[in-house]
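Students often ask what a 'structure token' actually looks like in practice. Rather than answer in the abstract, let us consider ABC transporter substrate-binding protein, a protein of 559 residues. Its sequence is given first.
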Amino acid sequence: MVSSAAACAGPKDGGAEGGAGGDQPRRGGTLTVLNAEPQTDFDPARLYTSGGGNVPSLVFRTLTTRNREDGAAGTEVVPDLATDTGRPNKDATVWTYTLKEGLKYEDGTPITSADVKYGIERSFAAELSGGAPYLRDWLIGGDTYQGPFKAGADGEKGKGLASIVVPDDRTIVFKLRKPEGEFPYLATQTQFTPVPKDRDTGTRYEERPLSSGPYRVAENENDGERLVLKRNPHWDEKTDPERKAYPDTIDVRSGLDPAVINQRLSTGSGADASAVTTDTNLGPAELARIADDKELAGRVGTGRFGYVNYLAFNPKVKPFDDIAVRKAISYAVNRTSVINAAGGSALAEPATTFLPEQKAFGHTAYDHFPAGKTGDPDKARQLLKKAGHQNLTITLTHSTEQNRQTSPEVATAVQEALKKAGITVELQGLESNAFNERRWSAQKAPGFFLSRWGADWPSGAPFLAPIFDGRQIVEDGSNYNHAQLDDPAVNNEIDEINKLTDLDAAAERWGALDRRIGERALDVPLFHPVYKRLYGKNVKNVVISDWTGVLDISQVSVK
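Now compare that with the structural description of the same chain:
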């Protein structure tokens, strides 16, 4: 996932005890969600989510979903509409699912496997674009299918994908063009939400989608700026052990200034006492103030999402074609100053591996260019001198957006560290859209730039494949393989791991591959972000998994 983020505050060790303890969760009341970004395009075909999303997961159920538990336990994929996480054939090219009995929409009509098939097919329509791209790549015929609204080559409109088969009302079979052992993770995406064909209103479906989850959309103002969710009377908790759905109403208010959100959560007046945020972090100054207030400190959730911030090299641009230059920069970087620029140790943790430090991703500890907490400029100078690079001047491209990740503060910290190694760094700041266009371009990518990557699900696959699989280099479009690495051995290992349906075994091999690629110094991992978020004083049952890193509103209870 490019960012989300999706994509995307705490596990039990992260300070969420104030919300998780005390009174037992109870049914009833209104939960208010205060967010900066509106929940736009509220159509399961158009949403780019992982694990079903946060607010979307209250309305849209999928074949599988994330385990709604704190910390590492929350990285597991579990059944949702389906009876299990899927049954693969021998080589994981065919996956079969059976729907649970008694599933109903908000109007009481039954949910069928044909509805799941149609929900997926409509996500291929150009007018409903925005969701994850995997289905186009994985399903046989997905690369040419244009959705059910356009006529096919034979002139028949509404024709479905032959690679999705529904032999009866409760069975659905997916035929893939290559082995994909992680298909159960993909089945958590909202594109797997059932949509009855006779209720589809195309681009207007987002205004009044049919609920399969515990809540229905009662109001949707200004394209998701305000969403009011009420109970779905036909949701049966016996078929859905994951979502607790304690509140009667969930009122999502967006378009708010982050400082206002944190102030309202801190003060907790009126409805704000029963409020949370799913997208607004606390900043360094706010954390400093909260540290002196025991009550507020007890209402800070801490989460970790699979994300890495890094320095990217494009070896097609000199002098970054020379591995000695890339290694020298790797030694010279001062991660302490970078973390300070990112908001401090409470909001960022140093990284020497590309994969996040979580078991689900296959994290394998390594540091190929050990330089301590503050860098090793002497080692960097030695490498440059030996390679014939003295008085080196390079350009570092960054965003002008004040996000403390790819922003001027982080770029300046890198600049100052490299100066001690005799490297002059000229900073090139670009407006956010221009910056993203440059860094994701195979033709125009800078030689040296700040970047970041987040996983679509907790595994090494959506982390390493888009970044290092040579077959995913896109010449005309968004290219995420910044190093434009096309190594047959790496490509082959990615294929071999993708065949594995034993996710623990796959994780181990993703970690080993990360270590091997790391030796090439194609990037410099800088830090993994930490999320710190306030929640209201009447909020109970705080659950924050390592899948999302943020409070799961399907678990929350209010007084």
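One point worth highlighting: The mean pLDDT is 93. Ask yourself how you might have guessed this from the sequence alone, and why that guess would often be unreliable.
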